[in-house]
Amino acid sequence: MALVTIQVIQGHEAGIVLRDLETPFTIGREEENEVQLNDERISRFHAKVQGNDDALILTDLDSTNGTRVNGHYTKMRMIQLGDQIAVGRCLLIVGNPSEINIAGAGVPVDADDDSSVFLEDNELVQPAFPGGPPECPADLNALQAAQVASLVEFARTEVLAALNSISSRRKSDAGQNDEQISEDVVLPPDAWHRLQSVPGVLARYLTELANPSDE
């Protein structure tokens, strides 16, 4: 059973530190929640955190206003030390300060910041995984590995198709005047480089799924 510390850093309960919470636990407005938050934008039972070996899994419980991790809306995902969970106007951080400092984790995210959905002035979206790409799942049976590989391959081919389309468009527009070029896609350099790196990461996942380590 995993023990988790949750810090409330924004909202009515800001400053509260809930130490050594036993998983699973829930987050919401009702008293039955281990993490009870007084905010009308938060559902009665908003989200759940459960442990699986050394991993932590966050699940949105069909809340009205959604759950975000590091600025990105999610239904279910792995979380780690330093991740910031936004529910309503409240912002929670996973882990205590010493744990987060040791892990070198954490990314500042405003609970009311909607830049993950609507960007202004080409502002770059906060990384969903500031510690780097998540690890490829291990100990899958053949069917599970094939199912995950199919999802990864779908995402990889879709991203590659988008990248190839953008590259082809840029080449075809190279000889035109600025007035003749229709700007269908506008990406700042950092966002473009991040997008270009995705197929390589997904290809690595496919290799690991097809050739699992015996260790």
Automatic annotation (TrEMBL):
What single Pfam family name could you report for this chain, choosing any that match? FHA
- Give the SUPFAM superfamilies listed for this entry: SMAD/FHA domain (SSF49879)
Q: Which CDD domains match?
A: FHA
- Describe the location of the FHA domain by residue ranges: 25-74
Write down what this protein is called.
Answer: Oxoglutarate dehydrogenase inhibitor
The source organism is: Thalassoglobus neptunius
